[in-house]
Inverse folding.
């Protein structure tokens, strides 16, 4: 379900159809090691074909020379996919072989220090992923090579427990001029869409961060040395919104989709993708002072990380997936930013650290907020910015049935193995196409109460003796579930009147890559995504069966 990534081991179903997803998902030309593959406009296609043929020939000859594993390693270094290794691309290997890292990194170049500015200390708190929460731990990681997991097992502490930042470097968190309370904006816009596909899995080293990416890259580097501020899959990027405004300060809440590469050559890539990073910053409107900063991976659900690793040399077929739980991944400012150099009345410099080693005490003005937005509302707006399908609200499981009873409506429910509304797995194909298409949004909004749940959560509900009616609801759902995702239409009393498995859904809606390609380039206003049409049919069938059974 998660793409070529198909979870290969858990419960049962054919990984083939799982894998079909992302391939089928509009990447008619998966190119080994190439970055975002965006379909060019039709006019460019003819020349592109020639170039593609040349590239294919070069790949072919490289394969002869290097073998699959060799070509795999080569492609992972050839970040621009031109089949030549530039000195920049060779750098990681040079560093590995010579054991030296160049003293100054690009980050220091982009964020030069200024002795008169304010600085703050940020601490990283990290508790490693709990291996027993991974599905593959059930059989003691049988069939998973130790090498595959070594990057994960090795990651037991934050790379940098503490770091000093300049307040000014947080400027990218400032809103664009005129931004209103609660109106989201993109700090790092997503460059991916349904039609651009995804970035290559086959990479080890993040591209050098540029502009606003630098601060986010540097913050995430405190956890692990190889953060990718842009995820391989949509929705990528970082989105923010103002949650409080005063005369001199802003509170900005943000949501970042980023991931880490835990392996290095010669091992195969291992991707670690937390559901999301969220948090807030309170900073002065000129970004010279940071009052507070916190960034964390939410840990309130039972699973919050998606992991995908390659175990062979081919991009599309040899990938394993699992999900797990990381208890803590958090950055926090140890206090407001303070000037590193203070001038006394005579203009001479006072060190902010007294000779005794104590710091000078600073007194900070109290901030009087003029406008404020609740944390929940801000979180919801950031979520809708990332996931337009969330324009329809998805209620918690039992609440959805209470509401359906009250409004005498049917329940549209999605039961899945991984979460639907963050990056920790599984719902991708569904939500990127079907659930955010406008006819579906309209029908869901008008005629259904929607909910989604994790299998694990419903199993807990089913075992919870406290509420019999909840137990019964969960039981009716689990009865109809098959791995990995089941979409269901239910009566308010929990009876499932119609359901469809995601694999089956994908099989019946799948098109051959050639068909996708020809459709992509012939499409016009009449283009209709077959999966949207099929989902529409599914909902309508649910209404046909369910409506007559609703209480009059
Ligand atoms: C794991 O840690 C050991 C010891 O620090 C190191 O030698 C090894 O290269 C690391 N392996 C990976 C995959 O990072
Ligand atoms: C859902 O319906 C309500 C009430 O009719 C309407 O205000 C809202 O805009 C609709 N939302 C969507 C996403 O269609
Ligand atoms: C069980 O849940 C239902 C619906 O949410 C609620 O109305 C009822 O009071 C609960 N019963 C108990 C015993 O907690
Ligand atoms: C729910 O209601 C329908 C229609 O009234 C009925 O046929 C069905 O047996 C009920 N299911 C349960 C579990 O009570």
């Amino acid at each position: 379900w998660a793409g070529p990534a198909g979870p290969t081991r858990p419960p049962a179903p054919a990984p083939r159809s799982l894998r079909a997803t992302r391939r089928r998902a509009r990447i008619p030309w998966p190119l080994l090691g190439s970055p975002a593959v965006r379909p060019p406009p039709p006019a460019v296609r003819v020349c592109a074909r020639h170039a593609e043929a040349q590239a294919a020939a070069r790949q072919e000859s490289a394969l002869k020379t290097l073998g699959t594993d060799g070509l795999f390693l080569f492609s992972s270094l050839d970040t621009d996919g031109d089949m030549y290794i530039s000195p920049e691309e060779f750098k990681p290997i040079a560093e590995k072989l010579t054991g030296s890292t160049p003293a100054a990194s690009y980050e220091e170049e982009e964020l030069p220090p200024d002795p008169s500015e304010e600085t703050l200390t940020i601490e990283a708190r990290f508790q490693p992923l709990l291996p027993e929460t991974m599905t593959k731990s059930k059989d003691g990681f049988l069939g998973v090579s130790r090498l595959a997991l070594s990057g994960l097992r090795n990651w037991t502490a934050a790379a940098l427990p503490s770091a000093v930042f300049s307040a000014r470097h947080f400027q990218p968190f400032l809103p664009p001029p005129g931004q209103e309370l609660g109106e989201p904006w993109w700090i790092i816009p997503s460059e991916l869409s349904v039609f651009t596909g995804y970035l290559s899995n086959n990479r080890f080293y993040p591209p050098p961060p540029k502009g606003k990416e630098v601060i986010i890259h540097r913050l995430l580097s405190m956890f692990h040395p190889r953060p990718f501020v842009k995820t391989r899959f949509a929705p990528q990027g970082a989105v923010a919104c103002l949650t409080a405004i005063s005369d001199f300060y802003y509170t900005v809440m943000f949501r970042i989709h980023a991931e880490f590469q835990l392996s290095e050559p010669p091992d195969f890539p291992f991707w670690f993708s937390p559901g999301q990073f969220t948090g807030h910053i309170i900073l002065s409107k000129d970004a010279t002072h940071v009052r507070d900063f916190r960034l964390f991976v939410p840990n309130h659900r039972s699973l919050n990380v998606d992991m995908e690793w390659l175990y062979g040399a081919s991009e599309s077929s040899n990938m394993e997936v699992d999900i797990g739980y990381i208890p803590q991944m958090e950055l926090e400012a140890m206090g407001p930013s303070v000037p590193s150099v203070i001038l006394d009345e005579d203009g001479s410099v006072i060190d902010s650290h007294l000779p005794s080693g104590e710091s000078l005490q600073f007194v900070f003005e109290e901030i009087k907020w003029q406008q404020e937005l609740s944390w929940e509302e801000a979180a919801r707006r950031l979520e809708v910015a990332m996931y337009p399908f969330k324009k329809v609200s998805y209620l918690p499981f039992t609440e959805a049935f209470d509401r359906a009873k009250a409004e005498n409506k049917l329940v549209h429910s999605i039961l899945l193995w991984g979460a639907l509304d963050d990056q920790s797995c599984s719902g991708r194909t569904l939500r990127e196409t079907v659930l955010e298409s406008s006819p579906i949004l309209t029908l869901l909004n008008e005629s259904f109460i929607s909910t989604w749940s994790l299998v694990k959560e419903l199993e807990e509900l089913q075992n919870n003796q406290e509420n019999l009616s909840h137990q019964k609801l969960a039981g009716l759902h689990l009865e109809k579930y098959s791995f990995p995702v089941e979409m269901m239409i239910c009566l308010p009393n929990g009876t499932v009147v119609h359901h469809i498995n995601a694999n089956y859904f994908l099989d019946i809606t799948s098109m051959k890559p050639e068909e996708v390609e020809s459709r992509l380039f012939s499409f016009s206003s009449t283009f209709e995504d077959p999966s949207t049409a099929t989902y529409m049919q599914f909902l309508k069938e649910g209404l046909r069966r369910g409506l007559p059974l609703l209480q009059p």
About this structure: The two ends are 39 Å apart (CA to CA). Residues 37 and 196 are 6 Å apart (CA to CA). Residues 42-77 form the longest helix (36 residues).
